[in-house]
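SEQUENCE-TO-STRUCTURE ENTRY
===========================

Backbone structure tokens: a row of integers, each naming the local backbone shape at its residue.

Task: work out the structure tokens from the sequence, keeping to the layout shown below.
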Amino acid sequence: MPLPSAKPLLLPTLVALTLGGCVSKEFVQQEVGVVGKRIDELQAALDKTNQRLEVNTRWLSEADARIGKTEAGQTALNGRLDETAAGLAKASEKIDNVAGGLAATGQRVDANSASIAAAGQQIEANVAAVAAANQRIDGLDGRLNAAAGQAESAQRALAGNTAQIAKLEGEIAAVKASVPTVTALAPIAPSTTAAVAPAPVAAVPTPAAAPAPVVAAAPAPEAAAVTDSRARLEAIAAQIDAATKRIDENTAAIQAASDRMKAVESGLNGAQTGQQAGEAALASANKRIDELQAGLDAARQNSTASADANNATGKRLDNLEMTLAVAINKIETADKQLTAQDGQIKSLDERVSRNEKDISLATATAQEALARANAAGKLAEGKLVYETQLTDETAPFTFHSAVLTDETKQILTALANKLKAANENVYVEIQGHTDNSGPADANQRLALARAEAVRDYLHAEGGLPLHRVAVVSYGETRPLADNKTREGRSKNRRVQIVVLK
């Protein structure tokens, strides 16, 4: 915050001095200008500090906004994670359903495999039965061929017999035509059952009895011819009966073979029908197997797709977890940065407060030094050039001693070199300060001894003329901080160097 202006306090004092004749009017105006410039510089420094505080405040506002955005993003990310978890649960249910379907499909495939195996066994049995039927058919074909050959032989024999019978009938007709009368023949024995019929084929007669002896002394030639014809007729009739019997037997065998052939053809047709039915069943089974294989392939593809989707979901979940971890890390880092910035701002506020107090106190002692120098007539221009402090933090002294340390000597050497480089007609006042530890007179002496040690070093090592240097001991009367704390006591133990011109 800006310091209260010292001009209202300084002007009455200078006016009083002017009226009292202690200082000239020009000196008063010059001092007022110097003090006003110093106050303006201090005010500019405070303005810069306020600007930095405003910048830090703006940074804090931006950090709060970013934290708000980060929290909103985290909330949205949590929502997306919940949705992803729900999607994963649904995907797991679908995978379980697919697994159950695959298990059922596997059972159905096993059952179909068993059915196919049974159908294969049945088909093999049918094939064996068909092979056996083919063998039987081949045997029957051989037997039919043999029967056909026998039938052809019988037909040829029948044709020969028919031709022979026709020939015999022709011969019989010729014989009948050549015989003049039947009555002229010799009488037949009473055991004869029937006379020779005029038909070509007669019933098979019983064997004729031996002819009775002829009454005549010598048989006639016609009777012998008739007897011979009759015997030949009987022999032909017996051959015709035998041929007819063989023809009937062959006809019966041919009919039986035809019946067996029909039965074989019926069995063959049944076997072919069974084979066709087996082939149709096998084709249907193969079709069902293909359908089941296609369904199994589709199920495997769906399972693979589900596995791929599950893997992709897992990867997305891993990415989301990594993103969430990064976001949480960023939030924690932002929190740490904010905490650090809060500490820095608090420290800065404390430093600003201390600086304000130090500036006010240092300005007071610098103004006193300026007044003393002016009173002594040591200044050409009568203005404050700058001031610096030697504290325990920057240039410590030995405990309760005026011995300069190496750090203090380095700082004083740098100050002497700066004064030499400027090469200006300056006047330096060295002010000694202590804390309130110990008696006040001892602290007064210690502060003076330390101021004199600084003066002697600047003269010996820096070449600063002694008539341009003055020492003042404030002892414990001008503390910058509270002597109740160790830090405050350390800050109060100091040597202040005021450069005037």
